[in-house]
Amino acid sequence: MKGYKEITDEIISKLKGGTIPWRQTWKSGLPANAVSKQPYRGINIWLLDNGKYQSNLWLTFNQTKQLGCSVNKGEHGKPIVYWQIAERLQKDELGEEYLGKIPFMRTYTVFNIEQTTVKVATDAKEFDPIIKAQEIIDGYADRPEIVSGEPTYSPELDKVKMPPISAFKSADEYYSTLFHELSHSTGHEKRLNRDIKNHYGSDLYAEEEIISEMSASYLSGIVGMDVYNKTIEGSTAYIQHWCQRFSNNEKLIVSLSSKAQKASDWILGNRAIFDNQTQ
Prior knowledge:
By secondary structure, the chain is an alpha/beta fold. The chain has helices at residues 2-16, 43-47, 61-66, 129-138, 171-185, 203-223, 235-248, 252-268, and strands at residues 32-33, 57-60, 78-91, 97-112, 145-148, 152-154, 159-162.
């Protein structure tokens, strides 16, 4: 499908350029719409990295015009996605027809505000990232027990093991690691019920790792921690592996991003929006 291919090609392009999107940080905050100020969600987060821009704000060509401004000559935008709902007649198990709702993806283009003549005053927020990170953890309503040990999550015991904060180079690294393990825990059968009881080295294991990396990176971005852009061993082979996986399945990166967003939403307590596919 054209939309999935366009998005997958964009992610593969980043990977081939040496950027691992789900291991990025946002120096000026999570990507957000310059008009509504609402942060983007799902796959759009990984498409709109700051790159060479200082601003995290993006807008469409039409939004730029509505503000009485313009896109600078020669600028190229980034593709992002949104979901629409189509109503179609379907049949249930008994053969009875009913009007079903089917989500489908559309793409459109946005520009960083620095690519336009739009001027927006910055709205700096003052808060302690560590306090904010602890608030998120404390607010995880059905959080598993956190016990001492090497960083890991056990789905059988529904427990997260973590070393003391003193074992880490910084408090930021402690919390980003804890976000990662707690993101795994959202896959437990009593929560989001992902297939997390998989074997090390399997495709499902690798996919679950990306889901938790994305979720942890998103949560770290919310609280303003700039620590998740970690170097990985064997990055060339890692990148080649995912380029191949995404080339073989154009829907995979969108699916993984959606699951990561739901993991973050669960931890944040945004339970009411799980079925809302708007990005």
